[in-house]
Each structure stands twice: as C-alpha cells, then as structure tokens.
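debug: dumping io for the single-chain case to check the tokenizer round-trip. Nothing else runs in this session.
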Amino acid sequence: MSIERANVDAADEAGRAALFEGEPRTVHLSLSADQRVPAHDHPDRQILFHVLEGEIALDLDDETHDLSAGDVLRFDGDCQISPKAVSDARALVVLAKA
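debug: decoded output
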C-alpha cells in the first residue's frame, strides 16, 4: 500500500486545490465570505462534502443545506451543486466514482 500526503493550504485563485492525483478525486475548497461556486454537477460520482471551517450554504438542485464546521454531507454527483460561503470557509470534497 502506498501512502500519500498533501497539505490543504495550497489553493488556486478560485480557492480550489486538488490534493492527490487519481481516484478518488480529493479537493480542498477555500471560499471567502459571500463567495459562490457556480452551479455544476459531477456525473457518475458520489460526493462527500466536509466543512472544515466556517459556514457554507450548499445548494443541491432546488434545496439549500446550511452547513457549519464539522458537518458532512454525502450526495449523488448528478445533483446541481453550488456552495456559497456564509463566512470565510474551508471544505474537503471527495468525489468517488459511483
């Protein structure tokens, strides 16, 4: 078994950092207060969305889920997803092949 290590402090201008190559895709998301990621989907994936810090209003299709540090949500990647930071926030997002 190989072991890989990543640091969640690395992020691009959009606040995203892919933590590992290959599967499952693992992304660190860092958003400033009121910053929103446009609606999108991840077909053929199961998503695990873990809020590490702050608060995020996560729109999934037509429903909003208010999440705060420590909350974890699992959902089908066919949903339209659009996270918006209520306060400065960080999340770990795991996208596994369904």
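debug: round-trip ok. The CA atoms of residues 8 and 43 lie 25 Å apart.
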